[in-house]
Design goal:
Blueprint lengths: L1 H21 L5 H72 L5 H29 L22 E3 L8 E3 L8
Antiparallel strand pairs: 1-2
Helix pairs in contact: 1-2, 2-3
Enzyme class: transferase
Catalytic activity: ATP + protein L-histidine = ADP + protein N-phospho-L-histidine
EC number: 2.7.13.3
């Protein structure tokens, strides 16, 4: 809209100059007005260009920010997928081993404890990721992970696990598995 107004004013100025050119030399007042209008039009055109360019740059910045957020979300989704699928794969392998140990109750118990530990650690890892994604401070400050349901039983020992849950399976001699 502004560019159209500037173009119309410029056209009007050229037409008025053409009209005064036929009547002889324009007076000093006419020349001053013409130069003032030309300067005003030039300034208006510059201001409109500057305004449009600033709006375009703001739009580019918003688009770049939205693209960066989308890329971050995609990377986070990949990380979540990798974490969960890796943990589920480990649980699946341990459960398959446990199924084959039905004749040895002690080994079966250890294998089931490993399945429980792996599932607990996977849950803890997911909670830590969610804590970071929700901006709840440091990865260890919120979403506390409860111990397994029967943590007092033989074969479970409180301690530092690799994923930070604080619980680890132990073997029958009390050693950490």
């Amino acid at each position: 809209m502004g560019r159209v107004a500037v173009a119309c004013a410029l056209l009007f100025l050229v037409a008025s100059l053409a009209a005064t050119a036929d009547s002889g030399a324009p007076g000093t007042a006419t020349r001053t007005v013409v130069w003032g209008v030309l300067l005003g039009l030039t300034g208006s055109a510059w201001w409109l260009r500057h305004r449009d360019r600033a709006a375009f740059e703001r739009a580019l910045a918003r688009e770049a920010a939205a693209r960066a957020v989308a890329e971050d979300r995609l990377e986070i989704a990949r990380d979540l997928h990798d974490t969960i699928s890796g943990a589920l794969g480990a649980i699946m392998v341990r459960a398959a081993v446990a199924q084959r140990l039905e004749h040895d109750p002690q080994d079966l118990r250890v294998a089931l404890q490993e399945v429980e530990q792996a599932s607990h650690e996977a849950t803890a890892g997911l909670l830590r990721m969610l804590r970071v994604l929700h901006g709840k401070g440091s990865p260890d400050s919120a979403f506390p992970v409860p111990p397994p349901a029967d943590a007092d039983r033989e074969g479970i020992d409180a301690g530092d696990s690799p994923c930070g849950t604080g619980w680890r399976a132990t073997d029958t001699a009390g050693r950490r598995a």
